[in-house]
Amino acid sequence: MKAPPRLQALVEEGLIDTVVRQLMSGKEAMVFVVRCGDETRCAKIYKEANNRSFRQAVDYTENRKVKNSRQARAMAKGTKFGREAQEAAWQSAEVDALYRLAAAGVRVPTPYNFCDGVLLMELVTDANGDAAPRLNDVRFTPEQARRHHATLVAEVVRMLCAGVVHGDLSEFNILLAHSGDADGVDFPVIIDLPQAVDAAGNNHAPRMLLRDVANLRDFFGQFAPELRATQYGPEIWSLYQSGLLSNDTPLTGRYTPTRANVDLASVMREIDDARDENAARKLRMGQ
To answer: Which domain holds residue 47?
Structure first.
């Protein structure tokens, strides 16, 4: 097929030889199957901000850092240059997360290059060499559901230990790849990471992790109903907060929240102090 304009530049640079076909069009990007020498890869073209249905919500972009102080100031002010810098940071977030997670042993597509808003990466395939299906397109036996659920919970832990929360994990952005081994066992590969957040630097990270794990529970619970009663999300975050989580930490799927006594008088004093401070501030400003 004819290369789209944003891929044509990569063809001219010699990074892509030919564009085979469009693989999908999602809420933040379009993905094409491409040939690079003897290899078949995929090229992910990020949509411009005004063409995306998935916005750069503050939940995801909170505390995202850029190294350039001028860019950081412009982003904070919301200038045109700042919006362009924020867009570039949004796009590069997936590249950064892919390299970081691959180094941590998480099963994600191998990234090869990132140029002008286009990410070249591994094409995850099935047993026939075709693009691997998403989990939502596959039916599972109870045994398969339990196995894949356990694998993905372990991947969430591995991601968290690497300091990353996916933030939008579900059956729609996990592929079922073929291992290529003689036993023919398939395994899940996690994709779509531009909204990944820093586990330690984002106040919304706990809620996002709980939602990610709940999505896994609800999906695989359709095939293995006993999974619906598990509480891996709260268990994982509690261990992480306590500094007790590692890739090898045994999990039970059970969680009992601690019910510490609340010092109500202290809480009320904090509220009264905040109210008095606000009143004093208004008085100083002549309001």
So the answer is: 5-241
